Amino acid sequence: LKLAVLVSGNGSNLQAIIDAIEAGSINARITCVVSNNPDAFALKRAIKHGVTTVIHQNQNFSNRREYDSALVQILKDHEVELVILAGFMRLLSEIMVNAFPHAIVNIHPALLPAFPGLHAQKQALDYGVRYSGCTVHLVDCGTDTGPIILQAVVPIEHNDTEETLSARIQREEHRCFPEAIRLFADGKIQVNGRHVHISP
Ligand code: GRF
């Protein structure tokens, strides 16, 4: 399966995916890493592993649709089959969503539909929930609203800060995201409306 990984920041999820591919546990290849941020550490990780990088900056485009049209072209040029949002801090328009039907996945640091959007870990702490976690889901035109593929739960401790909770959630992200991509690569994901069926 030909993957693109879209990033904006640290890229620890990108690293987990690269590591899983290099270990032979995912039958896929990253054809390109695309960043909207030229300073993203994720780009260094990609280069270190010989993965092609593309910097696709927001400010060169007057609106989201134009940005996304150019992004679709970049991804089609790389023959991408599955688009992975790994800390990509931009919402996608219907231009991207329609160009890759049921083929864009995101990871969110909460148990959706709780706490969508930014600062999900802080939202969970402020609300006072006892458990949070991460969600791998398909991307639609809403914010963190697409069909859910996998989730993992973590407990919230009484002395947690945003940092300690984020670190606990990230350990689960680094396990769940490669697992979800492996399921795609093995053809085990079927989507029926909101419901994602995973073959055994
Ligand atoms: C992760 O916490 C993910 O849930 C969110 O953005 C963060 C990206 O982290 N969507 P990294 O860049 O993969 O380290």
Automatic annotation (TrEMBL):
Statement: the UniProt record of this protein carries the keyword Isomerase: no
- Which keywords are on file for this protein? Purine biosynthesis, Transferase
What residues sit in the active site?
H108 (proton donor)
* Boundaries of every Formyl transferase N-terminal domain copy: 2-181
The record's HAMAP family line, in alphabetical order, gives: PurN
Family membership noted in the UniProt record: Belongs to the GART family.
The protein, known as: Phosphoribosylglycinamide formyltransferase
Organism from which the protein derives = Pelotalea chapellei
Top-down, what is the taxonomic lineage of the species of origin?
Bacteria, Pseudomonadati, Thermodesulfobacteriota, Desulfuromonadia, Geobacterales
Gene that this sequence comes from: purN
